[in-house]
Design a protein that fits this description.
Blueprint: E1 8-11, H1 16-27, E2 33-37, H2 43-48, E3 55-58, H3 59-68, E4 78-81, H4 93-114, E5 117-121, H5 149-163, E6 171-175, E7 177-179, H6 192-203, E8 206-209, E9 222-223, E10 225-227, H7 228-237, E11 247-251, E12 257-258, H8 259-269, E13 276-279, H9 283-286, H10 298-302, H11 312-324
Parallel strand pairs: 1-2, 1-4, 2-3, 4-5, 5-6, 6-11, 7-10, 8-13
Antiparallel strand pairs: 9-12
Helix pairs in contact: 1-7, 4-5, 6-8, 8-11
């Protein structure tokens, strides 16, 4: 990957992938970073403490200022737009429309007008149940049917960007199931690794949803689980000097693993034998549940990304041993 140069903006920079991205930028010697986010005084604030950045701006103030004066914050070489509502159970359609679609549309247009490299977070949730495939090389985006409002809000912007002719100038990243340090603030949207660690400490066992489909046994539903350290490496790949990639890209490992695989790795990292209790899936999510996700990362590889993806067991071990057990954040 080439060297990153110039001022960098990271929206959502106090959040999960955003703060991990700033940590990775710092590791490359990039400190001239402006973060736009809702900071608060809890876990998100703790994500920021070890990081080096030049300015923090509340997200709503940032949005208002660039609307009133596009040059209010000067010029950025690269804009990473990771700020969004990431809750797959959010039911406020108007909120998602404004936060995930309108804000993204505004900041994309602003970045393009300023000549900044624009890289934004789409989502694997746009693929829905996967029946239409999970191929980022298929330009027929209208074929996709997200299962929830969150996925729909991400799909809406992907479609807008395509219709506006932006996808030949910007990069949209379809993140699959990302887990790792700095996700504590996400509540129920935390990864199973994070939640299972807490469950094991409290009860000695992990709860998993029973399958509601005959073609999947309990615990054998599959997801493409990606370590956040790999996710940010893939993200930064598209901002490297000389990168001309544009369009939508899957960000995952390329391999689906079962929930049983994941839970087994967590118990192994703690030196314990697996103890699993299966519970019924809540009716509220049963019709929106993804039973299989697997990123085809051929397009990512073709763009020049050649790094080895961290195997699931190694990623879980690093997360558990170096962050969850000692209670650390990235950079601490």
């Amino acid at each position: 990957m080439g060297t990153l140069e110039g001022r960098i903006l990271v929206t959502g920079g106090a959040g999960f992938i955003g703060s991990a991205l700033v940590w990775a930028l710092n590791g490359r010697g990039c400190d001239d970073v402006v973060i736009a986010d809702f900071r608060g005084a809890g876990e998100k604030d703790r994500n920021l403490r070890p990081l080096r950045f030049s300015e923090f701006v509340e997200a709503d103030a940032f949005r208002a200022k660039i609307a009133a004066n596009p040059g209010a914050f000067g010029r950025f070489s690269t804009v990473f737009h990771l700020g969004a509502c990431s809750s797959t159970t959010e039911t406020n359609a108007a909120y998602l429309r404004d936060n995930n679609f309108e804000y993204t549309r505004e900041i994309a247009a602003w970045s393009l007008a300023a000549g900044s490299r624009f890289i934004y977070a789409s989502s694997a949730a746009t693929y829905g149940d996967g029946i239409a495939g999970m191929d980022d090389r298929d330009g027929n985006l209208a074929r996709l049917r997200p299962l929830n409002l969150y996925g729909g809000s991400k799909q809406d912007f992907d479609l807008h960007a395509q219709g506006a002719g932006w996808l030949d100038r910007i990069v949209g990243l379809k993140y699959f199931n990302v887990f790792g340090p700095n996700e504590d603030h996400k509540g129920e949207m935390r990864s199973l690794v994070n939640k299972a660690y807490d469950q094991i400490l409290r009860t000695g066992k992990v709860r998993l949803f029973r399958s509601a489909r005959a073609d999947y046994r309990d615990g054998e539903q599959k997801r493409d689980f990606l370590y956040v350290k790999d996710a940010v490496e893939m993200t930064l790949h598209f901002a490297g000097a000389g990168s001309a990639a544009a369009g939508l890209y899957n960000i995952g490992t390329g391999r689906a693993r079962t929930w049983l695989d994941l839970v087994g790795a967590i118990f192994a990292s703690l030196g314990r034998a697996p103890e699993i209790e299966f519970i019924d899936m809540p009716a509220s999510i049963r019709d929106q549940y993804q039973y299989f996700t697997q990123a085809d990362i051929g397009k990512l590889r073709a763009s020049g990304y050649s790094k080895t993806v961290t195997p699931l067991e190694d990623a879980v071990r690093d997360y558990v041993a170096n962050y969850l057990v000692p209670g650390r954040r990235l950079g601490e």
